[in-house]
Records
---
Amino acid sequence: MKPHPDVMAWLYAVRLASRPGWRWEIGRLDAPAYADALRRAGLDVREVIVIRDIPTDRAIDPPGTFGFVCRGWGQWTYDPAAECWRAPDEPMTRPPGAPVPVAAIEATFGIPELGRLPITLTAGNGVCSFDASELHDPFRDMVAWLENVADGRFARLTIDIDCLWIQCHVLPADDGSLVRFLVDVDERGIARDEIVDIDVLVPRRALVESIYAPLMRFWEGRDLRRAWEEEWCPPGDRPEEEWDKPYRLRSERLDRLIGRG
C-alpha cells in the first residue's frame, strides 16, 4: 500500500512482545500494512502507532534515536539504559544513584519578561532553574502531567526551552508510599549525558500539591495579569478571551485532591 502522495514515509513506534519499551522505525507503508509486514517477517509485534509523518528525507542521528524529533515530539523520550523509546506515561529505567528523601518540592514562578518566565524547582540539595519560553508554553502540559501523577501514573514532563530540554521524571521507588522525582537537563536532545539537578524520594500527593498549589497562586495572581499581554502572551492570533488575562489553567481533579485555594 502506497503512502499519501504528500508523505514520503511515517515514523512508527513499534512494541515487540520480547523487548522492553518501543522501537522507532521508518516505513513507507501505512500502519496496518506495516504491522502486517513486520509480522510476516517473523517479529512478535504487539502494537504499531504513528509518531509523525516524514514529508522529506531525514537523516537518523545518532543511529536509532531519531534526534530530529527527539525531545520535542509528544513527550516521548529515549531510554539509553534499556536501548528503547518510552511512551509519555511509561517510566524510564531507574538510573543509579541515592535519591534524598524529602517531604515536598519547592516550586517558584517569576514574572515573565520578553517571553521568558523563570521557574525554579528545589528539593533536598538539588536546584533546577530555567526560563520557560512563550514559544513553547509548558503550563497546560505541566497541569496534565500533574493530573497523571495524581492518578498514580509514572508520568514524565518534557519542557522545551528552545532546544534545551528539561525533563521531570516520576519513577517507582522501593518504598511504595513514595515516588522518585528526578529532574535532568538535556542539552543535546538525545537523552545521553544529561545533567541531573534533582533526585529525591517524595510522597506522590506532596509532589503534586507542592507544584500545583504555587502554580495556581502565581497563575491567578495580579502580577502575572499585569504582565500578561506585554511580557508573555501578546494578543496576536490568540482567542479574544485570552487577550487581557491568563487562560484558565485550574484542574478540577487536582482541586478535589488537594482542596481548592
---
Amino acid sequence: MNALLNGSQKFSVFITLRTLEERLRQADAWLQGEEEHGRLYHRTLTLPPEQREQARQRIAEALQVIDDLASRLDLEASYDDAGGHIRAGLSESWANLCDIRSKKLRRYGEVHPALSAVLDEPVEQLAQLALAIAALM
C-alpha cells in the first residue's frame, strides 16, 4: 500500500498517528491511577470508575484503529532516544528561565527592588543546570 502515499504524505500521517498514540497511552496511564507529584504541581485524574472504564475502552479501540491503519499503510515504529526529548525540553526551559530574570519581568509591570536579590541567582543556577543536563543527553 506504499503507493497510496508519497513520502511527505506518509510522514504527515505517521507524525499525526504517533502523536495521537502517545497522548492516548499517557491518558490510559492516568486512567489507571498513575499520578505525578512535583514540588510545584500535582497531577491526578478524578473520574468515577465507570467513566474511567469507558474511556479506557475507547482508548483501546483507538489504539487498535491506529495499529490497523499503520499496518495497512506500512508505517513502521520509530525508535526515539529519550535523550532528544530531554534535551529539547530542557533547552526550552533554559530559554524560559532566561525570561523570568528580574530585568525581564519588567514587561509585566513594576519590579520590586528586592526581587533581583531573591530571584536572579537561583534562576541563573537553574538555567545553567538545565544546559548542563541537556549537554549530558
